[in-house]
Specification:
Blueprint lengths: L6 E7 L2 E7 L16 E6 L1 E2 L5 E7 L6 E5 L6 E4 H7 L9 E4 L2 E4 L2 E9 L3 E11 L2 H7 L5 E3 L1 H4 L3 E5 L4 E5 L11 E3 L2 E2 L3 E4 L2 E2 L3 E2 L2 E4 L7 E4 H7 L12 E7 L2 E15 L2 E11 L13 E3 L1 H4 L2 E6 L4 E6 L10 E2 L2 E6 L2 E7 L4 H5 L6 E5 L7 H7 L6 E8 L2 E8 L1 E2 L2
Parallel strand pairs: 6-12, 7-11, 20-25, 21-24
Antiparallel strand pairs: 1-2, 3-14, 4-5, 5-6, 5-10, 7-12, 8-9, 10-11, 13-14, 13-26, 15-27, 16-17, 17-20, 18-19, 18-23, 21-25, 22-23, 23-24, 26-27, 28-34, 29-30, 31-32, 32-33
Length: 408
């Protein structure tokens, strides 16, 4: 049985990771005879790197428009500490602890606040856990003010349409999902977990968090990988490449590789990129779960999150056959103080061999001078090609050619 949670937030992009975990109770159920679900509002969302969903919202009567990540991997709802200070929200120091990759820490709460979403939807009586989201903002190059998880999702039916970039919110009740998709029945506490068979010379089964806040295809615990022998019979071409993660609680070593196949609902995917990490805090609750499925895979579906009924409906969209990202450069970049900075260069990587150094400022990629870290990351995803990067080092501009390798 999966233990109950209140918050897990994980984001992985270009070697960066952050994760939050803490505790709570499960959702209610749709009662017999309940009326049909009623549409409350529909509004657009912005798609960030790897499919992460960004929506606008306001807190209480504050006019400031804030940026929230929609995160089914969060068993609560969160706000950035700097945003709370700016909005002058009072904090309660409850002594509650979050634990994540690399350790754990205590966090305060901003209690009894209202989240105002587009279309007039007001979600009241919310207790936000408060933490520092500066790293998340540096990953995306825009201010991230918080994340929206279970505390909001448990009250509604939420439809995510990646074809139109529209989110629709309904009251709980009877709803028609349509035809051609698959209805999942996850283990449903604060965070949904679904079975997903894996195949890589051997076949293995476990449950995995269904995490729309994780900007990757899949993340597995090294304990699960070892005990299942998932990589024991991997082919010679299946490289296990070291990379680096950095979370809210510190840095950690990770690896990235490819598995031959995995199944989500009735849908099989081949040659799926996966991240591996040493789950020191046992955030993934192994052996009950093996890891999580992230939004870079899930964005290939239009998704209905029906927490009140304990259901998730997925149907392939126009991105279903998008190729996976197998690129590898070894560059770790963040948007810091208004500039794209190279903060680390992996040992033995193409970036190190090309001559990049931590501290270099990334000025342009292939004549793109936008200073947009998300655009730069997209330009660094074309495996098998070579790109020209303009950097500034010691106040001098340099042009460096960087081959983009493949993890295949």
């Amino acid at each position: 049985m999966v233990r109950r949670f209140t918050s897990i937030f994980l984001l992985v992009l270009a070697g960066s990771v952050c994760l939050i975990l803490q505790a709570s109770a499960g959702p209610g159920n749709v009662l017999p005879g309940q009326p049909k679900a009623r549409l409350i509002t529909s509004f657009p969302f912005q798609e960030l790197s790897n499919g992460v969903i960004l929506i606008k919202g306001c807190i209480d009567d504050k006019p400031d428009s804030l940026n929230f990540i929609l995160d089914s991997g969060s068993g609560g709802i969160g706000l950035d500490s700097a945003t709370c200070a700016y909005l002058k929200l009072p904090l309660t120091h409850s002594g509650r602890t979050i634990r994540g990759i690399g350790g754990k820490k205590k966090v305060p709460y901003a209690n009894d606040n209202t989240l105002n979403l587009p279309g007039g939807l007001q979600v009241d009586s919310l207790n936000f856990h408060v933490s520092d989201y500066e790293l998340i903002s540096e990953v995306y190059g825009i201010k991230i003010d918080g994340l929206i998880g279970y505390s909001m999702l448990k009250r509604y039916i939420v439809r995510i349409n990646y074809d139109t970039h529209i989110i629709s919110v309904y009251t709980p009740g009877k709803i028609k999902y349509g035809h051609g998709g698959d209805l999942l029945k996850p283990i449903m506490f604060a965070i949904p977990a679904i079975p997903a068979p894996l195949r890589n010379g051997v076949s293995t089964a476990s449950r995995y968090y269904f995490d729309t806040g994780a900007g990757l295809c899949m993340l597995l615990s090294e304990h699960f990988v070892k005990d299942s022998s998932l990589l024991a019979k991997r082919k010679r071409w299946q490289k296990v490449i070291p990379t680096e993660g950095q979370g809210l609680i510190g840095r950690l070593n990770m690896s990235i590789t490819v598995i031959k196949g995995m199944k989500v609902g009735k849908y099989w995917f081949e040659d799926v990129p996966i991240y591996l990490f040493n789950d020191i805090s046992n955030v993934m609750e192994y052996p009950e779960l093996g890891g999580l499925i992230g939004i870079d895979l899930l964005r290939r579906f239009n998704i209905t999150l029906n927490y009140p009924a304990g259901e998730i409906y997925i149907i392939p969209n126009t991105h279903f056959y998008d190729p996976f990202d197998y690129s590898y450069t070894g560059l770790v970049i963040y948007f810091i103080d208004g500039k794209v900075r190279i903060t680390d260069v992996m040992k033995g990587s193409p970036a190190e061999k090309a001559g990049f150094q931590p501290g270099d400022l990334l000025i342009a990629v292939n004549n793109n001078f936008s200073n947009n870290i998300q655009q730069y990351r997209e330009l660094l995803k074309n495996a098998g090609t070579k790109v020209s990067l303009i950097i500034m080092r010691n106040k001098e501009l340099q042009i460096i050619k960087l081959p983009i390798k493949s993890i295949l």
